[in-house]
Predict the structure.
Amino acid sequence: MKHFVELSGVTLDYPVYSVRAHSIRSAVFARNIGGQMYSSADVTVVRALANINMKLSEGDRVALVGHNGSGKTTLLKVLAGIYEPTAGRVSMNGSVATTISVSAGLDYDVSGLQNIYNLGRMRMVPRKTVQSKLDDIISSSGLAQFIHLPVRTYSQGMVARLMFAVTTAFEADILIMDEWLSAGDADFQAEATKRMDRFVDKAKIVVLATHDFGLVQRVCNKVCALGSGRIGFFGTTSEWLEWIENGAVARE
């Protein structure tokens, strides 16, 4: 089976009601969003993505770069199926895993162990497969005996570690990531980095939004630079570095 991701003319608009384009509030809003705004009656529309075209095939590891508000996370959410484009088409072939909104579906009133089964079911992973991965997930999360306690008793870091362990336990053809893992102490980070590297290596296609240029050069073979919801550059990592050296502004 050939795995691919293709975006054709993808555009995404956010309607924002009761915000007038010429008000001070609108001006501040426009600067913070980073997209393009236009007005219709009492509705202001933010164009978060505009005419995005991209083709990815097996072996591609693509970094999405750009300043905050440039459209990176929005584009990831479109790829993950969280947002439906206003216009254009998204075509994908292959199973998808994402680190975006990883806590979606988490039940805080049941144990971490029960949540592992619940999350596996949400991803349509057979129960036997989940059972075969239990020891690995618990060990990778570092939760030990806390896995039997309700998730509402966990710290934010513990929840993040649980979700990370579950997300990386089951292989996927297409991996969509918003930044690298940042939860846990130094020892956990070291082990998590090794685990994430293995997870990424097994994926056929990876799309990663990041501010870390060193990570881009280490992991990615292609770069998509976004600005105001539009693609300013798309090409190989080496071409992107040349693009920056030749005067392009690479914003964080």
Summary: Residues 186-202 form the longest helix (17 residues). The two ends are 37 Å apart (CA to CA). Residues 225 and 233 are 5 Å apart (CA to CA).
